[in-house]
Specification:
The structure holds two protein chains of two kinds. Chain A contains 15 helices and four strands. By secondary structure, chain A is an all-alpha fold. In chain A, β1 and β2 form a beta hairpin. In chain B, the strands form three sheets. A five-stranded parallel β-sheet of chain B has the order 2-1-3-4-5, sandwiched between helices. A four-stranded parallel β-sheet of chain B has the order 7-6-8-9, with helices on both faces. A three-stranded antiparallel β-sheet of chain B has the order 10-11-12. Classes of the chains: A mainly alpha, B alpha/beta. At the A-B interface, α3, α6 and β4 of A face β2, α3 and α4 of B.
């Protein structure tokens, strides 16, 4: 990250960097618009099943961004975010199933519940650093499936809760798969925008400062305890909303949906996608959604061995995650674009 | 404009023609029948993965012998890792992308629950699901879903009817897991006992899956004076119960539900000596039971295992299970004749009459009807000898009062 900004500064000193005559800013905006346009066009091109997969990808992306804010930006390792994913999914499911609350209302409530739960969990977690925090959160991931079975009058026990897929409102001519996809896409855009806004400013710098040098950060007047708990809350809120959306798309929640493996998968997602990177959340989501399926298509006998090979290959070829890889590629392009401009001037 | 409309019309007719001519749903061509399945090949329940493998092996045998009405079975099986969301994804892939005729032998209550509604909305058969929950027998509300093995309630009724006939002055103590599975068994047992239930059940104890031990429950049951123990527990707790009862010298007639009756996972850890006399139910032949040593069905099964699934464990009852359930599907498909529409396949599945399978216990007959979606409802009791389960006594039929 550091060297990236430094070299960018070096290049931009003599002339604003341009690629093919356009500034970096317009390239970024153009790229974003293109990605969003493609995302909006997908329902016209894909079958219901593929859309369902992409809805899951978007859900994972929200969860990964949430975990990345905590682990990537703030340096708190969590092996237990599957617990908040479950909390979000169950909050929504119980509200819809038991109290007939409309899902449009239940999803934000799930986010708020997870925000509070995450904040509260963040307070005792303050005493724990690094690997010890990882273990404490791991305990959370282990406990949640069993706790869910314990309150079986609410959660339906091991049988879980079956939901009905929401139909498109206002008589929109969309199938429920298409509607859920758009709902998830809209939420994803909103939460990514919010996350970007949060991380680029004063608060974002404080969050990163706590990660890089906690003592220095405190000396500068950052309330480390408050920030860390708040970050935990925001992170849990993202993951909870993701759980709520995916729970709706799957139309079923059960303790077996939220085992320890889910938490580990989320951690794999942010590392492969790229730590402390917003776009990394999206790349990571594609990875955890599709690579296990490809692995299975390659070998039925040992899909997880193939998955492992993919994982090692990614880590070896892209040590800073997929987003880090693209970042470097982009910088090379920038340099290549900047040189001819400099040459012309000289 | 009119030319375009004409073209569209011709196209529509052309597309509709073959569909009308064959009257078949997706998944069936003149040479192939596509069957979809997901199984936990990885994850916490991967011990059941062998079921998917033995089914694939059996379909290979069927194909080698000419297939079904000249069509080969194309068995597509994905890993669901025992995760409900993954099961949903894989089942949707099978139905929407692979275009299978039906989903066969989806394993586990959670995965089946997750796709229950979907399958019935899509009107795709969800046949012979591998779970003992009673809810798969609900043709009225879910006409596209059917289980296969005796469900929990049926099994519990078998113990109840044995008890009523054979044990005088019974005082029954019950321990059950406090969830849907435990309550399912409890309901079947009490239904089976009928009016006698109030009189002879002297104590009910429960535990939560999260409890570390069930020692105090066992002590309470002993102190209640019960001389019959109905043990409705999952493997870990079943082993604890057997061990504790033995330690405190409680020797009731011990009925152990099928869920927790595994010799390897339960009786061995509990102690083989302590487990002697434990009674459970069986509906399939146990490969270790010497009374089937010269049985033709057993010999054929062993030959099949050797030829098609040599790496499979012949002591594992799951391989008998997979073999038998695959035979049931083949029976249904053969019975469907040349009409492989989903509706007809479902109709045939609900129309099995006195089907006997070589690896089910002698006398067990599979029967279904449009109002009865519970294929196997009979079973025999089996007592643990210290080494194996030995079937004894008559065949019980839970569908009869």
């Amino acid at each position: 990250m550091m060297e990236g900004t430094a070299s960018a500064a070096r290049i931009s000193a003599p002339a604003r960097p341009t690629v093919a005559g356009l500034s970096v800013w317009s390239w970024t905006i153009g790229g974003l618009v293109l990605v969003i346009a493609i995302a909006c066009a997908l329902p016209l091109l894909l079958s219901g099943f593929k859309l369902f997969q992409f809805t899951q990808v978007l859900g994972y992306a929200i969860a990964l961004l949430g975990l990345n804010i905590l682990t990537g930006y703030n340096g708190q390792i969590s092996l237990g975010h599957g617990a908040f994913y479950a909390l979000g999914a169950y909050t929504t499911a119980i509200m819809i199933d038991k109290w007939s609350v409309p899902y449009g209302f239940a999803i934000p409530v799930a986010g708020v519940v997870c925000l509070v739960a995450g904040f509260l969990f963040g307070i005792p977690a303050l005493r724990l650093e690094g690997l010890y925090l990882a273990l404490a959160t791991f305990a959370l991931a282990l406990a949640v499936p069993q706790i869910l079975k314990y309150f079986d009058s609410w959660t339906g026990g091991s049988q879980g809760i079956v939901l009905s897929k929401p139909q498109a409102p206002f008589g929109l001519p969309l199938t429920s798969d298409q509607w859920l996809y758009f709902l998830t896409l809209g939420t994803t855009l909103l939460l990514f925008l919010f996350g970007w806004n949060l991380l680029r400013g004063r608060i974002g710098r404080a969050i990163v400062a706590i990660r890089d040098h906690p003592i220095a950060a405190e000396t500068m007047g950052i309330n480390s305890a408050l920030y860390k708990s708040l970050v935990f809350g925001v992170s849990a809120c993202y993951v909870g909303i993701a759980g709520a959306l995916v729970g709706l798309a799957v139309a079923f929640v059960a303790p077996d949906s939220f085992n320890v493996f889910l938490s580990i998968t989320l951690l794999v997602g942010i590392v492969v996608g790229g730590l402390a990177s917003i776009s990394g959340a999206l790349f990571g989501a594609f990875f955890i959604q599709f690579v296990p399926n490809w692995a299975q298509d390659i070998s039925k006998a040992a899909p997880w061995a193939i998955y492992g090979v993919f994982l090692i290959a990614f880590m070896y070829l892209m040590p800073r995650g997929i987003s880090g890889f693209f970042h470097r590629l982009w910088r090379r392009l920038l340099r290549a674009g900047a040189k001819p401009a400099e040459l012309k001037r000289s | 404009m009119s030319l375009r409309r004409l073209f569209a019309f011709v196209l529509a007719v052309a597309l509709a023609l073959p569909a009308g001519a064959f009257a078949a749903d997706p998944g069936v061509t003149a040479t192939e029948i596509k069957i979809g399945n997901t199984n936990p090949y990885s994850g916490p329940a991967s011990a059941y993965g062998t079921i998917g493998k033995v089914i694939a092996a059996y379909f290979k045998k069927v194909n080698d012998e000419g297939g079904i009405n000249g069509r080969k079975i194309n068995f597509i099986s994905y890993d669901d890792g025992y995760s409900p969301p993954k099961a949903v994804e894989m089942v949707r892939r099978l139905v929407e992308e692979d275009q299978v005729l039906l989903i066969f032998q989806l394993l586990g209550t959670p995965g089946n629950s997750a796709v229950h509604k979907y399958m019935n909305q899509m009107k795709v058969p969800q046949l012979f699901s591998a779970t003992g929950a009673t809810k798969w027998n609900d043709p009225q509300n879910f006409p596209w879903t059917m289980g296969w093995q005796p469900n929990y309630q049926s099994e519990a009724k078998i113990y109840a009817s044995y008890l009523l006939k054979n044990i005088q002055d019974a005082k029954v103590g019950i321990l059950y897991q406090n969830d849907d599975y435990g309550k399912d068994y409890l309901k079947g047992f009490k239904d089976g006992l009928g009016d006698a239930a109030k009189k002879i059940v002297v104590m009910e104890q429960t535990y939560e899956v999260t409890d570390p031990t069930i020692d105090s429950q066992i002590v309470n049951l002993k102190n209640s004076g019960a001389n019959v123990f109905f043990n409705i527990t999952t493997p870990k707790f079943a082993a604890q119960a057997i061990k504790k009862a033995n330690e405190i010298g409680w020797k009731p007639v011990h009925f152990l539900n099928n869920v927790g009756a595994s010799i390897g996972a339960v009786l061995k850890p509990a102690g083989l000596e302590a487990s002697k006399g434990v009674i459970t139910t069986q509906y399939a032949k146990d490969p270790l039971d010497p009374q089937f040593k010269n049985d033709k069905g057993m010999k054929d099964w062993l030959a099949f295992m050797k030829k098609y699934y040599a790496e499979g464990n012949i002591a594992d009852a799951a391989n008998v299970y997979g073999y038998s359930v695959a035979q049931t599907l083949v029976h249904v498909l053969k019975q469907a004749g040349n009409d492989f529409s989903r509706a007809n396949v479902m109709k045939q599945a609900a129309n099995m009459k006195n089907l006997e399978l070589p690896m089910l216990l002698p006398g067990i007959k599979i029967n279904t009807s449009p109002t009865d979606f519970a294929p196997i409802e009979q079973g025999r009791l089996a007592k643990f000898t210290g080494e194996i389960y030995e079937a004894f006594g008559e065949l019980y039929d839970a569908s009869k009062k």
